[in-house]
Amino acid sequence: MAIRRILTIDNAADLAVLKQISKPVEGPVTDELRGLMDDMLETMYDAPGIGLAAVQIGDTRRVIAMDLGDGEPDGEAAEPAEGEEEARTPNPRFFVNPEIVWSSDELFAYEEGCLSVPEYFDSVERPARVRIKYMNYAGDTVEEEVEGLYAVCIQHEMDHLEGVLFIDHLSRLKRERAVAKVKKAARLAA
Fold this sequence. Notes:
protein biosynthesis, Peptide_deformylase, iron, metal-binding, metal ion binding, 7 strands
């Protein structure tokens, strides 16, 4: 496994890749594809984040890695101290050629962030529930209905596969503000 560089919107070449529509994976899930998924997961954990589309590391195949940490809390630890997050059991999920086959009319607003738009967060409204179909890490076809953070995250990552960033759902003013903030942070870090 290897940590890959995450493409960000402050770099014109990166942005050009991020705006591409990802191509379907042809054929079965192979060891090479599982290697990509392993790298994506390690990269996502290192960032840290909860979801990553392959295009965010420059691979334009329709692949997503996600871990919402929705396993059981580790051990019998006491409540976390203020400012600390509760340790969670990893629960990685992988999606090859994901598609939304149904979405609810009910909407859900959630404050989203993105590893390709570092340090910027804003509220985006999306369908509250979706039914998704995809191949998993083993290559099995899965269809399931999801809601809450899972629904938000999978829709956010699937947007990446279509060349759409979460800031594209915002007003032009907010989008411009996000881009300026990311560019300024990149200049200060250089």
